[in-house]
């Protein structure tokens, strides 16, 4: 469904990008922009930038970028029209009837058919579990002490011994090979042809928050590899932004959600009445998961296996929760490995007690670090308290930081004022390091080669123009959009020059002129190039002159190399003379603002 440009513009401008992204990602103001952890890839330091002036976002780490519509499309896995409708509803805007393009119709049909295929095969797996052929799978769930009600509630199933039984079933229901492949439900090879992706496995249907089956998790029975296998990413399934059990857990009345490692942990907790439990889908806990949880709660209880790998997973998850604005506490499962074992042996009441007594995440981090130091030795104690000071320096809220300083000083019997000074020193050291990083000019380019500086210059100039519209009057004397590199950069220049001629500048609306996601990233990158700090007018004039000369010189060289270009008014000889004269004049060019 394609809406008129003025309708899209109204929806986009009615949704401030900082407000929208801020509801998903914890943002911190730095200069004129906001920064946070990128929800589209795992990172420890925030390289995700949101510009309120340009109404755009860009990640300097992974290159994702776009406007508010692009963000909703990427984060929610929505089509363009779904994202527009979501934002229109958010801004209480009534949308007119629109017309779907052929491409949009195909995309919507594909998504719908994949969901239909997933639903059909989920029922197939469930019924197979209950048949004679599924006895092996049913025995596994019985051994794990799951009730019939729980098996039904989670739609658990069994995939069969192998071959193409599931594929044949889907074909009998009208799904072709390409659709089955797009749904991630088969393997295709020259040797075996098309075969089932899942075989000899117990099946865990994965549902989105609206309880649509979007994919599957599967555990092999026996010694096969891999032990766990998930649906690959599809048009409807992205494991980094969905969580197992969240379709139920989101309705919990508890003021926290439990984050654990596996499907069986979630199922065991739900069966025991702890329906606030969720798990990541065969992947590490990410900022995307944290942002997803932040919609439903401000508090999480982290339950990972009590072995070394589980402790490392908890330590990785804690800063991710903190960046997303989630208050995390760590639940101790000892002497058992996981919630499933714990509940079976000690029961629901003791499990609830452990939840209530969950350890503050900050002190859990210190306790784990304490294992690496001998606190009775002055050197070991100094190293440990220096580590504590660095962690305290990460706490942004002043009151919260002071309270933690007091608590740490009391717990580890050290002078509070001395610790406070160490925290201040750690904060100053960290901030000076961050400033050094921010002042390094390292713009991303479109597959930039070492010898290609022109594209860098074009992006630098376009960013500069979008930041300082007043320089356009001087720049347009020497450059036109035709001087820019063909493709996204040239079209962006054309649209920006057109806006500036009209006395306005709206980079986010320029993005609406590009339909594909890759172009959105490139446009966002163009307008997010890091500019060097320039002190004097003379320095500014020199920098602009250098950029214009490089861009114009490359443009003239392109014209000179295009020997096939001729027209009635200019012969090839005359064109070469004109270009040579223009190249000579460039040597004398000096821009004066």
Characterization of the model:
The chain has 593 residues and is an alpha+beta fold. The chain folds into 5 domains: 5-90, Zinc finger, CHC2-typedomain (DNA Primase, Chain A, Alpha-Beta Complex), CATH 3.90.580; 111-237, DNA primase, catalytic core, N-terminal domain (DNA primase DNAg catalytic core, N-terminal domain, Alpha-Beta Complex), CATH 3.90.980; 241-366, Dna Topoisomerase Vi A Subunit, Chain: A, domain 2 (3-Layer(aba) Sandwich); 372-438, no CATH class; 454-586, DNAb Helicase, Chain A. It contains 25 helices and 16 strands. The strands form 4 sheets. A 5-stranded antiparallel β-sheet has the order 1-2-3-4-5. β9 and β10 (213-220) form a beta hairpin. α3 (68-76) crosses α4 (80-90), α16 (378-393) packs across α18 and α19 (454-467) packs across α24. Residues 434-451 have low confidence and may be disordered.
Keywords:
alpha+beta; DNA Primase, Chain A; DNA primase DNAg catalytic core, N-terminal domain; 5 domains; 25 helices; 50% helix; globular
Count of helix runs: 25
The largest sheet has its strands arranged as 1-2-3-4-5
- Residues in helices, as a percent range: 40-55%
Give the C-level CATH assignment of the largest domain.
Mainly Alpha
Strand content: 5-15%
CATH hierarchy: architecture of the largest domain:
Orthogonal Bundle
What ranges have pLDDT less than 50 throughout 5 or more consecutive residues?
434-451
Distance between the termini: 47 Å
CATH H-level homologous superfamily name of the largest domain:
DNAb Helicase, Chain A
Number of strands: 16
- Helix and strand content put the structural class at alpha+beta
Radius of gyration: 29 Å
The count of domains is 5
């Amino acid at each position: 469904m394609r809406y008129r440009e003025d309708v899209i513009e109204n929806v986009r401008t009615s949704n401030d990008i900082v407000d929208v992204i801020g509801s998903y990602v914890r943002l911190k103001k730095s200069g004129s922009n906001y920064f946070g952890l990128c929800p589209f890839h795992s990172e420890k330091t925030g390289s995700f930038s949101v510009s309120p002036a340009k109404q755009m976002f860009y990640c300097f780490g992974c290159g994702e970028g776009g406007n508010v519509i692009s963000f909703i499309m990427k984060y929610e896995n929505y089509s363009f029209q779904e994202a527009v409708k979501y934002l229109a509803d958010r801004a209480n805007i009534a949308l007119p009837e629109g017309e779907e393009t052929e491409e949009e119709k195909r995309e919507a049909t594909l998504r719908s058919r994949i969901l239909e295929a997933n639903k059909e095969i989920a029922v197939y797996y469930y019924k197979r579990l209950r048949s004679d052929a599924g006895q092996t799978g049913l025995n596994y769930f019985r051994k794990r002490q799951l009730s019939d009600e729980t098996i039904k509630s989670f739609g658990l199933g069994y995939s069969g011994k192998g071959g193409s039984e599931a594929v044949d079933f889907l074909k009998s229901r009208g799904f072709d090979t390409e659709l089955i492949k797009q749904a991630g439900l088969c393997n295709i090879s020259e040797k075996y042809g098309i075969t089932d992706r899942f075989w000899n496995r117990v099946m865990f249907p994965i549902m989105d928050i609206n309880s649509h089956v979007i994919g599957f998790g599967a555990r092999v029975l026996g010694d096969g590899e891999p032990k766990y296998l998930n649906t690959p990413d599809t048009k409807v399934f992205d494991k980094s932004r969905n969580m197992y059990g969240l379709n139920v857990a989101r309705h919990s009345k508890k003021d926290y959600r439990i984050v654990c490692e596996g499907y069986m942990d979630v199922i065991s907790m739900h069966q025991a009445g702890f329906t606030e439990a969720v798990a990541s889908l065969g992947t590490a806990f990410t900022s995307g998961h944290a942002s997803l949880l932040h919609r439903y709660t401000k508090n999480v209880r982290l339950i990972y296996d009590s072995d070394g790998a589980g402790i490392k997973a908890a330590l990785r998850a804690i800063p991710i929760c903190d960046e997303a604005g989630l208050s995390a506490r760590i639940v101790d499962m000892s002497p058992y490995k996981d919630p499933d074992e714990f509940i079976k042996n000690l029961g629901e009441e003791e499990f609830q007690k452990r939840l209530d007594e969950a350890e503050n995440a900050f002190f859990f981090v210190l306790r784990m670090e304490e294992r690496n130091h001998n606190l009775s030795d002055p050197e070991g104690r100094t190293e440990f308290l220096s580590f504590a000071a660095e962690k305290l320096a990460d706490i942004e809220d002043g009151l919260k930081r002071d309270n933690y300083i007091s608590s740490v000083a009391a717990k580890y019997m050290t002078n509070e004022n001395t610790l406070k000074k160490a925290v201040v020193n750690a904060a100053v050291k960290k901030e000076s390091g961050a400033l050094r990083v921010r002042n390094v000019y390292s713009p991303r380019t479109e597959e930039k080669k070492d010898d290609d500086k022109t594209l860098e210059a074009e992006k630098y100039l376009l960013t500069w123009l979008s930041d300082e519209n007043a320089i356009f009057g001087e720049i347009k004397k020497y450059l036109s959009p035709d001087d820019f590199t063909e493709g996204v950069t040239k079209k962006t220049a054309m649209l920006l020059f057109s806006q500036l001629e009209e006395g306005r500048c709206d980079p986010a609306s320029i993005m609406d002129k590009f339909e594909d996601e890759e172009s959105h990233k490139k446009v966002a990158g163009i307008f997010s190039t890091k500019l060097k700090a320039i002190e004097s007018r003379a320095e500014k004039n020199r920098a602009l002159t250098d950029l214009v000369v490089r861009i114009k010189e490359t443009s003239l060289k392109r014209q000179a190399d295009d020997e096939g270009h001729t027209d009635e008014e200019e012969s090839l000889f005359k064109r070469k003379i004109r270009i040579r004269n223009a190249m000579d004049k460039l040597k004398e060019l000096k821009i004066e603002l």
